[in-house]
What we know:
This protein is mostly helical. The chain contains 29 helices and no strands.
Amino acid sequence: MSVRCCIYVLxxxxxxxxxxxxxxxxxxxxxxxxxxxxxxAQGGSPGVSTVLKKHESGLxxxxxxxxxxxxLAFLYNAMRKYIFHDEHNLDSTFDAGGNVxxxxxxxxxxxxxxxxGDILHSATLTVKNGIAGPFWYATGVMFNIFIFPILSVNFKxxxxxxxxxxxxxxxxxxxxxxIVFCFFALLTNLVITIGIxxxxxxxxxxxxxxxxxxxxxxxxxxxxxxxxxxxxxxxxFYVSYFNACLVFILLIIFVVRIFYVSDNDDxxxxxxxxxxxxxxxxxxxxxxVDNSFVTxxxxxxxxxxxxxxxxxxAVTFCDQASWQSRIAAKPKQGVLGFIxxxxxxxxxxxxxxTTTGIGYLTLCYHNGSxxxxxxxxxxGLVTPLIAERVLGSTGGIMIxxxxxxxxxxxxxxxxxxxxxIIVYDIYxxxxxxxxxxxxxxxCVLCGRNKKPSFETKNSSNDQNADKxxxxxxxxxxxxxxxxxxxxxxxxxDNRKLKPNYTxxxxxxxxxxxxxxxxxxxWCIIWVTICIIPLGLxxxxxxxxxxxxxxxxxxxxxxxxxxxxxxxxxxKATGPGLIAGGISGLIAGIVVTLGMASTFPxxxxxxxxxTAQDHxxxxxxxxxxxxSLGVSVIVSYLTSNVKTREDEEEEWQKTQDIDNPLxxxxxxxxxxxxxxxxxxxxxxxxxxxxxxxxxxLAYATGLISIGVFAVVIPCxxxxxxxxDDGVFKGWVTFCHIWAVIMAIIVIFFPPVEEVKxxxxxxxxxxxxxxxxxxxxxxxxTANNSKNMELQxxxxxxxxxxxxxx
Length: 804
């Protein structure tokens, strides 16, 4: 009881500091008509007005945002070429160089979580469940956002050379397991892409006059694929930065206009007090305490939050687009970036949705009825309507702009995700491997076994004493490769055809990577083109965003426990993960159909009954529970990992995922200073090196979960129905949080990017000066030569992917 009193006193103090506690806390409205039930919108309700003609929308989206993103792509390529010298490296296409700053990682994480569906759908939750709707929605999603850093830091230390999480499946469990989870991964990308397409359709068609389905899907395909083809994943980071800046700027404008700026035509908007008086008088849903819109005690919203925990787990952990953005950063930067990204994302449902949703209810109260039909509310048109009402046609254009930027960020991420799976896990693995049958401990170049970097349990035996191990020399020491790079660089400068590679040891593999680069380019093009027929089929099917979002989770969430176990548990086995994933998929579908059949109309009313809250919760819980339980039990029964040596050997399989011409340890030279190793550091050494990053991931992740999933909810549910003081304290907290995050989003990434580029530029200048200096000693000369060759090889060895 004392804890409850302390919390109440704390909230009241915050309210007093903001001048927010009214003299009469029981007052719910100013017109004496509380509670007031809103009438349904009449047939002639104007709804959302179109603000652009079709050709204007096409010019804005394709030439405006598409052209802007292409400029960013060319800028990014120039930076990689003239500063980092790796613009044509295959791996850099899918990991942006592997050294993305933590603030840019955070902005990208937040931006890619800013789905158009989130921006639109979270406001719908406010209208249907009150202020509790977006709050519990955010709480459910945040739970998984803060678990992900724990997985990502283990991923980066145990498989630092992997570009997809499926490569871990292949390295540890073999072909069968890999194929099964390639299916799950592509299914997840398909579900998410369909959701993005439907959200884009709702946004573009609501604000564009006579926008046909064909027009909408063509525009989205152009936005998704244009700059992905030119700049790869790295450009996605830059586009995500501008997307996040735009979202936060528009968010601040909405907040100021709805809560703090008043005029004669505001219809009850313009102050927190007036908004509260209106919304508190509107009769809310049955599941809310006192049928109030200003309470966090909402059974519907709470149920939705629980569902969202499972749904977001599928989106977060099984989507390759999520992994590739985190893989692009080093362990510590990835942890900090994801935590900060979660803080940024929290602003959208709690501030944007509350602002536009509460603004909508205020306008409806003064109008006497809803301004949108129920179907329009479900489509997510609340935010576009409020933007138009408070900012005119400019507001509609701003929402279209926000939606377009969100589409570009999330859609291009899915294009790159599918392309990376096709390139690394399908084409390179099964259709065109460099060397057939290479095992994890064998060299790709020569096929011989690598020298063990740890002592196995059989090391005391002399049975392998006469075995011939791989003796491939390091590429920086290859004089022939040096000559190749210089000759091809000279040919490029003189605009001549590049000569063939002459190095007998590395040349063939470099030609092989060139062919993969060419295939990568075509792959991105065809994945983008396939979006068009996919979108047309989806539009004809009649499914809506809500249905695909939740039914898609039922069939993709069985992938989550196996992915988690493959990264975190050494005793996980291929048979266990296959059995868990397939049993979870079957259980989820069966339970969903069974629950749907119990509602009126049964399975004959398929789209409606399968999207009921209890149906979704039952199906997702069954899919997750069966997948986790079966995976753990079968793995425990079939595992051969018994000792610490067995565990270390198991993780060594993932350590061996690498590109021999671009070894992953080169990206960690700064972190590995002082650690002695031959060839590559062992799994145990990587664990020691990044122990602080792991501690940081566990500490920040668990603390953040405690704050957002326990502390804040416990504080807010204390109050059955918010009085005006508590309401003003909550919205003020959200607004302050939004301003702080906006400052971080706008200023931190460019500062860190400039610092990183200046650091690399000075390093390049130092190497050039060292090369020209006649007074350097032999060791300095050799080190400079090796460093320079590494830079040249990553550039000249992959220029244009051309083979004469």
